[in-house]
Write a structure and sequence with these properties.
Elements lengths: L4 E5 L4 H11 L5 E5 L11 H19 L3 E4 L2 H14 L4 E2 L5 H7 L4 E6 L1 H5 L1 H10 L4 E6 L2 H10 L6 H8 L10 E4 L8 H7 L5 E3 L2 H12 L11 E3 L6 H7 L6 E2 L4
Parallel strand pairs: 1-2, 1-3, 2-9, 3-4, 5-6, 5-7, 7-8, 9-10
Helix pairs in contact: 1-10, 2-3
Bound molecules: D-glutamic acid.
The site of D-glutamic acid has 17 residues, from α3.
Length: 258
Amino acid sequence: MAGPILVFDSGVGGLSVVAALRERLPGAALAYACDNAMLPYGLREDSWLVQRILAVCEAAVAASGCCALVVACNTASTLALDALRARLAVPVVGTVPAIKPAARLSTTRHVGLLATSATVSRPYTLQLIREFAADCRVTRVAADALVREAERWLAGEPPDRDVIRAALAPLWADPELDTVVLGCTHFPLLREVLAEVAPRRVTWIDSSEAIARRTAQVVAGVAPREGPGPSFVTAPDPRLRAGLAAFGFAEPHLLHLD
Ligand code: DGL
């Protein structure tokens, strides 16, 4: 029997992907690893970040004995997918902003991309927009403050609506914008509050179901083992315990990096 499917993010954002994976693959064991010591990734320098992602994923893959790695982080995937695939022996599934489905859905042809500072300006993201949303106007909004809000929310603290309102504000300049891509896995965790503070109705779209679908294809021939799986952190933080437990993970282990 093969090992669990390992889900990786800088923090708790990957848990939005865990939710979709549990729906699609209810029996499969999932492991979770987050680099909470270095959160947020969205404000880090690229060459340093690639090395860091490689080191953490390599250690987490070894510690979990996983059969596949899901990089449940747009900031990491738009930068380091090729490097991860070259370094690791297990299949790697990435997460990139859902530009393509958003362009398909928008009737006004004006789409918003809400993501980290890094993701909104990455060549990978710009290429996605050129390829799949060439006939749309795409308003890119860096909303790093929402990463902290999602972390706080999962730790049991109420999200700060003023911070969230301010982060979303640039989306509303054009009344025609009708679809918003949640291009950071932390943001779907705040979906209800986002919709609540938004001044009008829009379609919010993220990649989690597509990632779960793709993961199911990748592990189809491998048969990941069933039952609970471990979780790993890079810094001890008791506030993570409740959030991880809510998504079916027991007490996290501290990951040792070389
Ligand atoms: N959850 C991550 C993403 O999807 C990023 C959060 C961070 O900035 O660390 O981009």
